[in-house]
Amino acid sequence: MLIALVFISYDFMAQDCSICSEPLKYEYFTDQSAKEVHIAYLETINQQNYRVKKSGVGAKLSVVYSGIPINFSGDYNSFNQSRSSYFQRINHTYDESQSESRFRQVMNNNGFKSFNNCIDACMGKPGLFIYLKHNLEQQAAFYVKYNGDPNNPAKLKRSKVTNASKSDKLNGTKLYPNGEETFTFTKKRITDTSLVILNSNVGRTATLPILPPTPTNHPNPVECPSIYVKHFVSDWSPSAQHPEHQLSVPNEYKILGGGAEVIETSVGNLIIESYPINSQTWKVKAKDHMTPSVTKIKVHVMALYDPNDNFDVSITHATDGQPSQRPRVHIDVENGYTMTGGGAKVNWIGAGQLLIASYPEDQDTWHVASKDHQAGNLATITGYAIGIKARQDSCPILSEISVETSGMAQHPNGTVRLSDNSYTLTGGGVNVIERGAGSLLYQSYPIFGEKETELTQQWFGKAKDHNIPVLTNIQVYVIGIKVASDKYAVFANEY
């Protein structure tokens, strides 16, 4: 077995890092073998991140294959040649452009972080690390390891485990190099994710999400296809008074939602279009109004990775038939589909109209509206609702909609996050509360990040008054989905 692993410039290490494979596999990986996970992990190493990965542990790159830890001490070309030879021997086709997508297919977002933490800890990278020991229905345990100065042990403080009714004492524990501590806790709610949060005197916060385990009494816990959603962002459009832009996703993706981001100017250009042309292309457009202004616009798209066509995505649309000064329309998703997002397009002539609403009215209905401003104008509006369903009837898709209301301001803005991270963000929208002369839709797009204590999936919205001062507020909405029997909904950022 070892003879088959003929890598150029490597060293075998004495310690066994198989712990990074098995416990994490059962909690975080989709229905894949450990071999597939490690192959996918090897694929993610590219010329850009090779040097960064090597810098952590004695100028060597540390990887694990089937529990065998290997250190690569050569340059990237040597590593790539060895990897290519190995993939050729096992008849595996490697496409660097698809490596991140493949790894995200076999591992979810929390697992990606946890797997790398475990590898770094095992291979001796300096820092404080958490990785899973076991995860039962009512109880879980995790390891904490410190790699650092033996004369300056790490001491835990302000540390906690969320969703725990009872936990081993964390705060005050001292951690020394070349050892690890085990902590156990009892879950308060067996269906909720627990989050381990460790602070210490030696550096930044370390976190580890622990998802609910697959129920043992589930009739078929891994039969349903997993949901993998990717955030695509275009470059900026050319500068114009009416800037517009489109973004098309690769053939193996299907658009679930989208938004528009406008570079703000002193005068302002307002959104008039943000909608799906089809399941693979999203269009956005803004315009100045009454006062000349030049700016740029960017497209945001949330798209489902579905190379095996496990899901059907439907786009329905409707247009308000009678031109008016305040056109609005309500669009329902196709029967049997779960709504993931929606969009709007103002059909205008003359001075034109501007968007004031494009948001989920309820679980099945998207609501859009526009208005004239300063000058009377008649127009219609077209609304779009996007829905999804699994091709397997036994795999229903659930959705969650969250909403937040901003404070009163001339340029009100706000964000709303998914309250349950087991759902994956697919879309969102904004409703401007009409007051006085009115404010107009200015920004509506997804944002992602990682705080010290949590992963965040959010939607951002903003409106502004225009030439006539108005105080108002906005409602910002976000939509997330998951397969009812699938805890492996996953998300990946791309900027």
Q: What's the structural domain tally?
A: 3
Which structural class is indicated by helix and strand composition?
Answer: mainly beta
Q: What's the CATH C level of the largest domain?
A: Mainly Beta
Mean pLDDT: 77
CATH architectural category of the largest domain: Sandwich
Number of helices: 6
Query: Share of helix among residues?
Result: 10-25%
CATH superfamily of the largest domain: Proprotein convertase subtilisin/kexin type 9
Topology:
Blueprint: E1 10-12, H1 22-28, H2 34-43, H3 47-55, E2 61-65, E3 68-72, H4 76-89, H5 99-106, H6 109-122, E4 127-135, E5 139-147, E6 154-161, E7 164-167, E8 174-175, E9 180-187, E10 194-200, E11 203-210, E12 228-233, E13 244-248, E14 253-262, E15 270-278, E16 281-287, E17 297-305, E18 311-319, E19 328-332, E20 338-347, E21 354-360, E22 365-371, E23 380-390, E24 397-405, E25 413-417, E26 424-432, E27 440-450, E28 455-464, E29 474-483, E30 490-492
Parallel strand pairs: 12-30
Antiparallel strand pairs: 1-3, 2-3, 4-5, 5-9, 6-8, 6-10, 7-9, 10-11, 12-17, 13-16, 14-17, 15-16, 15-20, 18-23, 19-22, 20-23, 21-22, 21-26, 24-29, 25-28, 26-29, 27-28
Please tell me about this protein's structure:
The protein has three domains: 1-104, no CATH class; 126-215, Immunoglobulin-like (Sandwich), CATH 2.60.40.10; 228-492, Sandwich (Jelly Rolls). 13% of the residues lie in helices and 44% in strands. It has helices spanning 22-28, 34-43, 47-55, 76-89, 99-106, 109-122; strands at 10-12, 61-65, 68-72, 127-135, 139-147, 154-161, 164-167, 174-175, 180-187, 194-200, 203-210, 228-233, 244-248, 253-262, 270-278, 281-287, 297-305, 311-319, 328-332, 338-347, 354-360, 365-371, 380-390, 397-405, 413-417, 424-432, 440-450, 455-464, 474-483, 490-492. The strands form seven sheets. A six-stranded antiparallel β-sheet has the order 13-16-15-20-23-18, with no helix packed on it. The model is unreliable at 1-15, 22-34, 64-69, 103-108, 215-222, 450-454 and 486-495 (pLDDT under 50).
